[in-house]
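User: quick one - fold this with 4'-phosphopantetheine bound?
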Amino acid sequence: MWGTILCVENGRQRLRRAVYPGSFDPPTLGHLDVVTRASKLFDEVIVAVAVNSQKRPLFTLQERTEMLEQCCAHLSNVRVLALEGLLVAFAQRIGACAIVRGLRAVSDFEYEFQMATMNRQLAPEVDTCFLMTHQQYAFLSSSMVKEVARLGGDVRAFVPEVVAQRLDAKFHKTGAGIAPPTDES
Ligand code: PNS
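Assistant: Sure. Structure tokens for the protein plus 4'-phosphopantetheine:
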């Protein structure tokens, strides 16, 4: 399926596809800022939701995928897929030329630098491209959003409405049939 969309090499037109990977547990307005800007830089952006994140996610893979699909529905060149296994193998499989990552405060740098360096050694043809997060979201993180939501704070300034509702359901209406956090499925 990917082969039909992919470009012809050697100087002919080439579709610029990027992969934007992450845990997205949950997606924040910072993530959406990055994917929106990436969608203007690349012909197609695949948001890749990590299946086997070493972190124990609050939201299942399906929940994270659904939230992202809803949040990105207005971006016609953005698709959401599950990322299982090695990121660079996934990027190669879908014919992505770049990995997009958002860069927030200086504290992100070391981890991101390490990851980009490893990925480059594994697949030199897939470059990592950093987008500096909008200053409004420079200190925003999914973990902080979860913490605030868990303690009953209003997170609507930090996440899309659909995410705020899911957080509310997860933390405050678990008795109403919403599953509590589980190990990654
Ligand atoms: O949002 P996160 O948790 O910072 O995203 C981290 C993610 C999912 C991009 C990273 O863990 C990843 O690439 N996972 C896929 C497995 C892999 O390729 N690991 C080696 C990275 S050098």
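One thing worth noting: The chain has a mean pLDDT of 90.
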